[in-house]
Design a protein that fits this description.
This protein is an alpha+beta fold and 203 residues long. The chain has two domains: 111 residues, no CATH class; 77 residues, Immunoglobulins (Immunoglobulin-like). The strands form three sheets. A six-stranded antiparallel sheet has the order 1-6-2-3-4-5, with helices on both faces. Strands 7, 8, 11 and 14 form a four-stranded mixed sheet that branches. A hairpin with a 2-residue loop joins β4 and β5. 32% of the residues are buried. About 5% of the residues have low confidence.
């Protein structure tokens, strides 16, 4: 799939319609019922959202370690990004979306990324969480491991030969999202409340 070429071709011939935060963009496109392609601004990776008749029907995440498409891209979409939106004909948007279709629309709802409520007095501090990813009893190299808290995608690393990644975080509850080399997505919720935590995750 050469979606990068598709993006360039669409942008060259589309009507530029401004820059928006992701939630504003989704609300405006829903209200307008128009089709188009939104490209994220800044960041190490490029997020792409494809709208058809005002609804997000496709997504891609383009990065140095490889690309993700469809539902897998939405799992790692940072909702704090700004996007440039390009309005296109519906058939053009459908053509781009055909290779990165979203099937589980729950991923793009605001409720999916709401902050996790914390009850009672919370322990405050900062430390390091070290994760070793295991598959079939062996360390898994080349897996993309990301930490999300509420709406924000905080950090992302790729495992080395030992299957280990480490993140420096404040204490709290996080969603850990692992994308293995086959592109399968695994989600875990982790409570982090110590200066150093070593955890093994078997997928």
């Amino acid at each position: 799939m050469n979606i990068e070429n598709d993006i360039r071709n669409v942008v060259e011939h589309a009507q530029y319609a401004g820059e928006y935060e992701s939630e504003d963009l989704i609300n405006k496109m829903t209200a307008s019922g128009r089709s188009g392609l939104a490209v994220s601004i800044g960041g190490k990776e490029q997020n792409l959202l494809i709208f058809i008749d005002g609804a997000v029907e496709g997504a891609a995440l383009l990065g140095n370690e490889g690309n993700l498409y469809g539902d897998k891209a939405i799992y790692l979409c940072n909702k704090n990004l700004k996007y440039k939106i390009y309005i296109t004909d519906k058939n053009i948007a459908e053509s781009v979306a055909s290779g990165c279709r979203i099937y589980d629309k729950g991923h793009i709802q605001s409720s999916h990324l709401e902050e996790i409520p914390e009850i009672g007095e919370q322990k405050k501090g900062r430390g390091v969480i070290r994760l070793q990813i295991i598959s079939e009893r062996e360390p898994l190299a080349g897996a993309r491991v990301s930490m999300r808290k509420g709406r924000q995608l905080l950090l992302s690393e790729v495992t080395g030969p030992d299957g280990i990644v480490a993140f420096k975080l404040t204490y709290g509850i996080y969603d850990c999202i692992i994308v293995d080399r086959s592109g399968t997505v695994h989600k875990y919720r982790i409570e982090f409340n110590d200066e150093l935590i070593d955890t093994i995750i078997e997928i």
